[in-house]
Design a protein that fits this description.
- This protein is an all-alpha fold.
- It has helices spanning 2-17, 19-32, 36-71, 74-92, 111-123, 131-138, 142-168, 177-181, 183-200.
- The longest helix has 36 residues, at 36-71.
- The termini are close together.
Length: 203
């Protein structure tokens, strides 16, 4: 179980660091001349929408994993880690990562409409890479599934908010463009490593 939580933590941190997750909010904040506190607040609001859609999809997959493990005892021990390895390899060799809204500046408009637009766009683009973790976590029951969801929520929102605050404050030495280009390779590596660990560690 520890390897699942560790993998979810790393994957959540990785995806939160991808500029497409927080750069749209930063671009709007600069265009609208928002103060730092408001920029971080909107990041949390948009991030919550993004996390919510991801978690809702993950909850369905987690319950599926729970039912499968109840019917087929080998699912948790063999099928779940094998699935992580297979999907990890597919991600690693499937090209560039997923995209989110283009972080181009927007014309000035109602703040409520801007926030709602950002949140709606993020809600409609859930992260699919983490879903295999939800499926595997479901084989351990609802408590493990809830713990994984909490990990994803806290790490994703925390990292996105910190990055917006750091970049907004003028620290531009973070070179995350290369991270975005190799997103799927990093994601695939995390999935494969967690899957392989599942064969040797008692889930």
């Amino acid at each position: 179980m520890l390897e699942l939580l560790t993998g979810a933590f790393l994957l959540s941190l990785l995806h939160a660091a991808i500029p497409n997750h927080w750069a749209p909010v930063l671009a709007v904040a600069r265009a609208e001349r928002w103060p730092l506190r408001r920029a971080v607040g909107v990041t949390v609001a948009a991030g919550l929408a993004h996390v919510l859609s991801t978690v809702l999809l993950g909850l369905a997959l987690g319950l599926l994993g729970w039912r499968l493990s109840a019917r087929f005892s080998q699912f948790a021990g063999v099928a779940a880690p094998a699935l992580l390895v297979v999907i990890g390899l597919l991600y690693a060799f499937s090209g560039p990562g997923h995209t989110h809204p283009d972080p181009s500046p927007v014309p000035r408009r109602s703040r409520g409409r801007v926030v709602l637009g950002l949140a709606a766009t993020m809600f409609l683009a859930p992260c699919l890479e983490i879903q295999t973790f939800f499926l595997a976590a479901g084989t351990h029951g609802t408590a493990m599934l809830a713990l994984l969801m909490a990990t994803y929520l806290v790490v994703s929102l925390g990292a996105m908010s910190v990055l917006v605050a750091v970049v907004y404050s003028g620290i531009r030495r973070l070179n995350l463009a290369s991270l975005a280009r190799h997103e799927r390779r990093f994601t695939g590596a995390v999935l494969v490593l967690v899957g392989l660990a599942g064969f040797f560690v008692d889930w």
